[in-house]
Amino acid sequence: MDAVRTALQPITHNLPAPIRDLGVSIIGDKCYKALLLDIDVEDTECLKYAISKGLGIGIVGASAIVKVPQIVKLLKSKSASGVSFLAYLLETSSYLISLAYNVRNGFPFSTYGETAMVLVQNVLITVLVLHYSGKASMAGLFVAALAASAVTLFSEQTLGMKELGWLQVGAGGMSVASKIPQIAAIWSQGGTGQLSAFTVFNYLLGSLTRIFTTLQEVDDKVILYSFVAGFALNLVLALQMVYYWNAPSAKAKGKRKEALPANSSLTPSYAEVAASSTARPRSKGPTTRRRG
């Protein structure tokens, strides 16, 4: 380890100022000195904190595209099959409350930044689900209600921190409950429809990672318990995705059912072939028998 430290210290001690300042802003002076200047990997407190920061930043970055595959699937198929509107309504509402709660409490952005990213994508998905379900008029009402709620939640004059804290408790429940309609929809339809596997498995990994980052950086049991419960239900969704991986979509099943009568009328059954062959008289062929 001494050889590694001797080789790395000339580099870490001469990093450009912007990189050094960025490192200090992320993990703080104490941990920057311990991990980069002194290269002390035995400082477990700083090591866990740096890992937590790295994972948090990674989640925030990945969250910018986590719902993009779901949006693309909806746009391409022009169908909301397998995607629960109620699930997205509950999740979007809980994310809006959680975003306001984290911002107004001044928590590190790396511990909740994905909430803002996913919230924007959820709004778009919810609008698409309403549109492809034949309820386009409700989409404008949904966006207007969401905007009015945001103004109320972020305003200290309108809503106090105590009331917002109680709403956060409810948001944790809504976030967990938002998975149940989706699980039920998959179960009742016997397939995942237009639900994106990329989104489901990223949610599973993200919720597991958030348990670790919350334990390291945020001393808030309400947020911790909501991530634990969310991970449990995300695991159920992931298992459903694996179980129904090769199941045809509802749209494909409908096409298959429509095709069956047409094919059956064109293709005669074995009994029909046998009956026609016995009923048809046999023609007499030429004979070589001599008459006389």
Automatic annotation (TrEMBL):
Gene3D superfamilies: 1.20.1280.290. The keyword Transit peptide does not apply. It is found in: Membrane. One of its GO terms (cellular component) is membrane. Belongs to the MPDU1 (TC 2.A.43.3) family. PANTHER family: MANNOSE-P-DOLICHOL UTILIZATION DEFECT 1 LEC35 -RELATED, MANNOSE-P-DOLICHOL UTILIZATION DEFECT 1 PROTEIN. This is Mannose-P-dolichol utilization defect 1 protein homolog. It comes from Cercophora samala.
